[in-house]
Specification:
The complex is a heterodimer of chains A (about 300) and B (about 230).
Chain A (H helix, E strand, L loop, with lengths): L12 H14 L1 H38 L2 E5 L5 H13 L3 E7 L1 H10 L18 E6 L5 H9 L4 E5 L2 H43 L1 H9 L4 H41 L9 H29 L5
Antiparallel strand pairs in A: 1-3, 1-4, 2-3
Helix pairs in contact in A: 1-2, 1-8, 2-6, 2-8, 2-9, 6-9, 8-9
Chain B lengths: L1 E9 L5 E10 L4 E5 L6 H8 L7 E6 L2 E2 L8 H5 L2 E5 L10 H11 L4 H14 L15 H13 L5 E5 L7 H16 L3 E5 L3 H7 L2 E6 L2 E6 L10
Parallel strand pairs in B: 3-8, 3-9, 6-7, 7-8
Antiparallel strand pairs in B: 1-2, 1-4, 4-5, 9-10
Helix pairs in contact in B: 3-4, 3-5, 4-5, 5-6
The chains are: A alpha+beta (about 300), B alpha/beta (about 230).
Amino acid sequence: MVIITMKLSRNRTGYYIKEGVSSIFTHGLMSFASICIIIAFLLIMGSFILLAVNINAVIGELENENIILAYIDEYLSLAEARALGAEVSRTPNVSRVNFISREQAMYSFLGRHEDTARFADVDAEWFRHRFEVFVYDVALISDTQHDLLSIYGIRRVNANLTVAQALVTLRTIVTGVSIVIIAVLLAISLFIMSNTIKLATFERREEIAIMRMVGATNAFIRWPFIYEGFILGLIGSMAAFAILMSTYGVLAGRVYEFEAFFLNLVPFSNVSLPIFLLFAAIGFGVGVGGSALALNRYLKV
Amino acid sequence: MIRLTDVFKVYANGTKALKGVSFTLDTGEFAFMVGPSGSGKSTIIRLLTGEIAATDGQVVVNGYDMEKIKMRKMPYLRRTIGVIFQDFRLIEKKSVFENVAFAMRVIGASNKEVRQRVPYVLELVGLENKIKAKPDELSGGEQQRVAIARALVNNPSLIIADEPTGNLDPARSLEILLLLQKINELGTTVLIVTHEKPLVDRLSQRVIAIDGGRIISDGMDGYYNYEVE
């Protein structure tokens, strides 16, 4: 028998990738099924995320309209009243402040009433200087109201606590429901995906047995499957992202065109990066993790 | 080299497959193992390839004590053994060349080494003209020769053949056995499990007969005290 000496090629990455890619084509049907399942799952999940994002955006707009009015003590001059603006801005949870003088308040009042003759003798002195105060988090509006009242020169603070509370409750419900739906979808899809990968691996159990028989290490057996899972996951997630982006684009166009729901959808570009990263992470996790886990049962002997 | 010392094997379902089997196959030896179905032949092969562990006794293969070997070392033991099966166990989607090259890639051989070694081994088994064929384009005998080439390609010190002629006609069976004998003459230890009496008689080699989990005969020059099927 001829004695052969072999130099071990330490870097087998090229071989693993080549085998992984080759396997995708030789087991074309299974590869196609895996990609379709990843796409379907990510599309459903992405749709719910976009729905939740849009509902939250609507709530956010409503929150912005829910401003606080901080009335200034009538004994303060215009300059003194304006000067309070800096302190009001520094109050926790305050995002933006607009100063409204008593004259501006009067004109605003008059502007809201058509019967101007009835208010002909209205005087600016009847009104107080005030600040329109916008907040970051409507849930903290009560605390903000209390903080504003503690500022010297602020006489009264009007905040619509009932509406604020309703918005907080609505946002909590939407967020909670979204999380539950996404978690359930994730669990179902992982189960389906894991079974698909198990099926694909089962189809190749003979091949794995032969690899083991000729002395393949577990790593040598596992890596091509992992690369294959990675590539399938990547293709699936990128395809899902492209489909979601184009479909959402068409939908947003229609909503804008028909002024449906009296609102505009959140532009996809606002959420594209997080969704892209999420899809890539899930595609990677499901593809690579699923392949590695599914192989374990065949690598124990 | 194989050494079994008082080996017992009891499966989880209570089946006593081996009841104190002892034999040694030295480096460069050639032996047949004969026995009826359920006699324990397959259990011995699975012990030798590390698929299962003995319940009691000692199994040593090519210097590896199978009781003490760590799982991570098992692939390295298997690289010293070439195993040939009755059903060939080729990868259907790979060509003859790739089926053989595959075993070399497992141990980290470079492309250059694969290109040099595989044609040589395929020539040794007489398949130099079938290098691009897929297994389903070959006859049973040719498929078995691919399996032999794969077993040989990493230059193992031991070849274990489990019913290698079970799916072949008598003429092809003899060809395969003569090929294995030729491999043995080149220095490789060969153990063939079979129940084909004419072939065992033809080669006049050592015959280990097993029945009921015990060795009942171990004779040289084709002698066995056992009625082979």
